[in-house]
């Protein structure tokens, strides 16, 4: 039996063990987020958000983990293009 189980839909929340600390992510899709950031940077349309994109990329890569807030930030930047 796994030490920690999250209900369905809680895919962004990492699992913690009281004694061991961080164990695993349910499904934060951090590699997918890195790809998405690279796509945005490569497109050349997001120079105005380059600092933010690079910052989030670095953090996600370092931790091999993405938070819901980081996903939201990237989504906002992506949608921001259409508002400008
Ligand atoms: Zn993760």
> What fraction, in percent, of the residue positions are helical?
40-55%
Total helical elements: 3
Biggest sheet, strands in spatial order? 1-2
- Biggest β-sheet: count, sense, barrel? 2 strands, antiparallel
SSE topology string: EEHHH
Q: What's the shape? A: globular
Category by helix and strand content: mainly alpha
Number of strands: 2
User: Which regions are unreliable across 5 or more consecutive residues at pLDDT < 50?
Assistant: none
- Termini separation: 50 Å
Q: Report mean pLDDT, rounded to a whole number.
A: 80
- Cofactors, ions, other ligands: zinc ion
Radius of gyration computed on alpha carbons: 15 Å
**Proportion of beta-strand residues:** 5-15%
Question: What does this protein look like?
Answer:
By secondary structure, the protein is mostly helical. It has helices at 30-43, 50-63, 68-83, and strands at residues 14-17, 21-25. Strands 1-2 form a two-stranded antiparallel ribbon. β1 (14-17) and β2 form a beta hairpin. α1 (30-43) runs antiparallel to α2. The mean pLDDT is 80. The structure holds zinc ion. Zinc ion binds next to loops.
């Amino acid at each position: 039996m796994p030490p920690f189980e999250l209900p369905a839909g809680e895919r962004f929340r990492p699992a913690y063990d009281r004694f061991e600390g961080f164990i695993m992510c349910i499904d934060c899709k951090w590699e997918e987020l890195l790809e998405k950031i690279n796509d945005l940077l490569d497109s050349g349309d997001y120079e105005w958000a380059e600092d933010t994109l690079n910052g989030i990329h670095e953090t996600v890569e370092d931790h091999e983990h993405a938070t819901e807030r980081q996903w939201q930030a990237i989504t906002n930047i992506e949608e921001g293009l259409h508002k400008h």
